[in-house]
Every structure is written in structure tokens, then in C-alpha cells.
């Protein structure tokens, strides 16, 4: 599942579910670039021809460089090494194909993370923002990882039972439907427990016949307060 997360509200603005065989870079072909937007992506999406399409559309990107990238330095800007910025360079690509795919200059920022001690090298076409801002933008990409973690935890998707596009979409939509139904039940019954806790309890009491509120410790409600008058019998033919 390829996802574009809008960090202005942490809401997915684009989701594409493939058959599991689609390479990451091909997902860029499905995007409609927004001029002025900054697309933050990992190294799996580095394809200079496609990145140049974003550039020509007036959009910006921030990604990490690959270790085998062939380039030469055009200019070096002053950096604040105390902030972890090792270098801030304007570069040009030297590879036979890459310099044809992306003939414009790029910006290369080398950053040493004081928290982890790791050295990261970023690549962008945004030439005006401070180098520290470029590093901070890439750090926000972690919100995408948190989004997928949320999906795994709350939508109860530990693994996919099929790899076809239809199988993946079906499982995701079933999980989303269950999550929304449980959220509706939580609101209507006024249950104080979180949705995560509610889903956990339902997973272990799925085949027990009891009023839902009785499944929660400390609940003051009783079965007399629930009037079930629309329960269908599965075997009533």
C-alpha cells in the first residue's frame, strides 16, 4: 500500500493498493504533483526521471541519497556543525543516464543526528530553506511509519491472506469497516475504554453471547438496560 500522508492534518491524501509486485518508484507515476508542495520520501522512491517530473511541476522533494550516486560538487554553503550539519552542497549528477534524467542542479545535505549518532545524507531540489529545515522535514517522514503502525495495531492486520490487488483491498476495507462499526458502538453505548482496548476485548470474546458492556470490568450497566429487538437469527429460514 503506497500512501501519501498530508502532514497538515495527518490524513492520507493518496492511497494505492498494488498486488505487492509494484516497485515503489512506479507509485510516483500515479501522483498528480502539487506545485509548491514538498514530497518527503525514502530511498525506495529515488528515480531521477520521476523526480525531475516533480521538479518541472513546481513541486519539491526531500529524500535520502543512494550510496552509489555519481555526482560532483558545484558549490558549498556554510554550515553549523554544532547543529549536526556536516555539509550543504549544490551538486550536479555525473552518471550517463542520471544526468540526462535530471539535468538540473540538486542540493545535498549531510547530517549527523546527535540523538542516534547516525549520519544521513539528504537530496532535495529545495534550494532556499535552511539546511536544518531540510533535515527536520525528513524527520517528519516518520509520521508515515506511525500511520502504518496504526493500521497494524487498530485495523488488526498482522499479515495479508492474499497478495492480489483484490485480496489486499478486500482485507483492508473489511478491517476499516470493522473499526468504524466498533467506533460507532463505542459512541452509542458511551464506553470509556479506548478503541484499541475495545478491539482487544472483542477479539477474545467474539463468540461469547453477552451484552457488550458486560465485557468491560467496572461497567455499571446491566443487560436490562439493553433492549435488543432487532437481533436476527442466522438459521431462521
Q: Biggest sheet: strands, sense, closure?
A: 6 strands, mixed
Helices and strands, in N-to-C order?
EEEHEEEHEEHHHH
What structural class results from the helix and strand content? Answer: alpha+beta
Helix % is 25-40%
Walk me through the structure.
Strands 3-4-8-7-6-5 form a six-stranded mixed beta sheet, with helices on both faces. It is 30% helix and 20% strand. It has 237 residues and is an alpha+beta fold. The protein has helices at residues 48-56, 98-101, 131-139, 142-154, 165-189, 195-204, and strands at 2-6, 11-16, 38-40, 60-64, 71-77, 85-93, 106-112, 119-124. The chain contains six helices and eight strands. It folds into two domains: 2-147, no CATH class; 157-217, no CATH class.
Kindly summarize this structure in a few lines.
With 237 residues, this protein is α+β, with helices and mostly antiparallel strands.
Q: What are the main properties of this structure?
A:
2 domains, 237 residues, 6 helices, 20% strand, single chain, six-stranded mixed sheet, two-stranded antiparallel ribbon, alpha+beta
Amino acid at each position: 500500500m503506497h500512501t501519501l500522508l498530508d502532514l497538515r492534518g495527518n490524513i492520507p491524501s493518496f492511497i494505492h493498493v498494488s498486488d505487492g509486485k509494484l516497485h515503489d518508484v512506479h507509485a510516483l507515476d500515479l501522483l498528480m504533483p502539487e506545485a509548491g508542495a514538498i514530497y518527503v520520501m525514502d530511498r525506495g522512491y529515488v528515480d531521477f526521471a520521476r523526480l525531475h517530473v516533480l521538479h518541472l511541476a513546481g513541486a519539491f522533494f526531500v529524500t535520502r541519497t543512494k550510496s552509489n550516486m555519481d555526482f560532483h560538487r558545484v558549490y558549498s554553503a556554510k554550515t553549523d556543525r554544532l547543529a549536526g550539519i556536516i555539509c550543504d552542497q549544490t551538486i550536479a549528477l555525473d552518471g550517463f543516464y542520471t544526468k540526462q534524467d535530471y539535468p538540473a542542479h540538486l542540493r545535498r545535505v549531510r547530517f549527523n543526528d546527535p540523538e542516534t549518532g547516525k549520519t544521513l545524507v539528504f537530496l532535495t531540489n529545495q534550494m532556499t530553506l535552511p539546511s536544518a529545515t531540510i533535515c527536520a522535514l525528513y524527520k517528519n517522514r516518520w509520521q508515515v511509519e506511525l500511520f502504518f503502525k496504526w493500521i497494524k495495531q487498530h485495523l488488526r492486520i498482522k499479515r495479508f491472506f492474499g497478495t492480489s490487488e483484490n485480496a489486499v483491498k478486500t482485507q483492508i476495507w473489511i478491517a476499516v469497516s470493522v473499526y468504524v462499526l466498533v467506533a460507532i458502538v463505542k459512541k452509542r453505548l458511551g464506553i470509556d475504554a479506548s478503541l484499541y482496548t475495545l478491539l482487544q476485548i472483542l477479539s477474545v470474546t467474539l463468540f461469547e453471547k453477552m451484552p457488550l458492556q458486560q465485557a468491560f470490568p467496572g461497567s455499571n450497566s446491566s443487560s436490562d438496560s439493553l433492549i435488543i429487538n432487532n437481533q436476527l437469527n442466522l438459521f431462521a429460514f
